[in-house]
Amino acid sequence: MSESETHIQDDLTGRLHEAAVQMVMEDLKHLWFSGKSLFEVLDVVYDTMRHIIPFDRMSVAFYNEENGLVVSRWVRSETEVKRVDKGYWAELKGSSLEPILRAGQPRIINNLERHLAAHPDSRATQDILKDGVMSNFTCPLRAGNRAIGLLFFSSRHPDTYQPSHVDSFLAVADSLSLAVEKVKYIDDLAQAKHNYAQILYFVAHELKAPLASIATIGQTLTEGYVGKLTAQQSEKVQRMIANSNYLINLVRDYLDLSQIETGELRFHPGPAVDLVEEVIRPMMEIQAPAAKARGMTIETDLEYLVAPCDATLLKVVFNNLLGNAVKYGRENSKILVRLVRRSFFDYADSGERVRQYWALFSVRNDGVGFAPEQKQKLFARFQRLNHPEHKGVTGSGLGLYISRQIILRHGGEIAADSEPGKWAEFRFRIPLRQEPPLVNAPA
Ligand SMILES: Nc1ncnc2c1ncn2[C@@H]1O[C@H](COP(=O)(O)OP(=O)(O)OP(=O)(O)O)[C@@H](O)[C@H]1O
Ligand SMILES: [Mg+2]
User: Fold this and answer.
1) Which of 237, 283, 337, 438 is most exposed, with minimal Cβ within 10 Å?
2) Cα dihedral 215, 218, 219, 222 in deg (nearest 10)
3) Model confidence over 203-228: pLDDT tens digits?
C-alpha cells in the first residue's frame, strides 16, 4: 500500500470510528428520556458500546458513599460468570479502583496473569482470572464531580485494549454517566419506597394482634366477666377500647398501604359476588352504631347485582366511603347508599363497538363537602382536608387512596362530587359481566 493509500485508509478508519462514537452518543442520549429501568438501560449500553469497545463481558458497580463500598450491580457476559458476579463488593478506599474513580481516568490491564504476579494479594484479580478474564478495561462513571461507579469491560484474550479505546470511552463518558445516573437514581428511589413499605408492613403487622387483644380484654372487663366495674372504671375502660379501635383501624390502613406499595396487594376475585349481601349490608351493619351516635340514618336504593370481584377488598372501599359519610356528614341527616347497573358503549380491542355493563356504587351525605380545587387532594396518600368543622375527627388520610387503588385493580373508576356547604357524593364503578345475571331481590 502506498503512503497516500495508507493515509486514505487511516482517514477512513478515523471517520468510521467518529461516526460510531456519534451513533453511540445518540443511543445514550435517547436513554435519558426513554423511561427504561436500570437493567433495561444497561442492556442497551451493552449493545451500543460494542460498536466502539471490544468485550465479551460488561459489568457495572456502584459506589455507595454511605458505607464506602463499590458493589457490583449488573453483569452480562458471553461466558460463564463464577466469581465476580452481581453483589461482588470491595472497599473503595485504598483500592486500585480509587484513583480511577477519583481522577476519572480509565485503566487498562492487558494481561491479568502478569498483573497477579506483580500483585499476588489482589483478591479481585484472583477472582476475575478464575472467571476466565484476561484483559480488563475499567472506566469511571462520574456526573459533574460526583462519583457514581465503575464500568468494567473484559475480554478472554490478552492485549485486547488500546489507548484508542480510552479515547472512545472518554468521548461518550458524559452521556453514558448521565444516562446511568438518572436510572440509578430512579431505581434507588423505588428501592427506598419498597424498603419503607416493608418496614411499615412489619411494624403494622406486629402491632395488630396486641392491639386487638387490648380491645378484647377491655370488652371482657366492661361486660363484667371478672367482676363488676364502677361507672367511673367502666368509662375509663370504654375510652381504652375506643382508642385501641382507632389504632386498629390505623394499623389496617397501614397494612393495606404497604401491600399496595410493594405490589403485593392480595387480589382474589370471586366469579360472582352478591354486591348487596356480601359487600354493602355487612359494612352497613358495622357503621350503624357510629351513624346512630351522630343521629344519622342510612337509606338505601339497591339493585341486586352480582359481579366478578374481590369481596374482601370491595368491603374495604365501601366501608371507607360509608365511614367517611358518617364521620364528615352533618349530624342528624340522611346518608343515601345506591347500587345501580349502568351500561355504556365502548370500543373493544378489535375496534368493535360493545356495550359494557357496570355496577355503580354511590354514597351521598349532607355536610360541608369540599371545594372543587380540593378534589385532586382527596385520593392522594396521607391527605386530609382539615375543615374546621371536622376538628377532632380522626383519620390517617389513607382510606380514599387505598380505595382508589383497589378500584383500579378491578378495572373500575372512582370519583367524587360536592356542592360545598351542602353535600358530598363519592361514587365508584366496577365492570359487570357482559350479560350480567340479576339475582332476585328478597321479597
Ligand atoms: N364525605 C365527605 N365529606 C367531606 N369530606 C370528606 C368526605 N370524605 C372524605 N373527606 C375528606 O377527604 C379526606 C380523605 O379521606 P380518607 O378516607 O382518605 O381519609 P380519612 O378518612 O381522613 O382517614 P382514613 O379513611 O384512613 O381513616 C378526609 O380526611 C376528609 O377531609
Ligand atoms: Mg376515611
Assistant:
1) 438
2) -160
3) 999 999 999 999 999 999 999 999 99
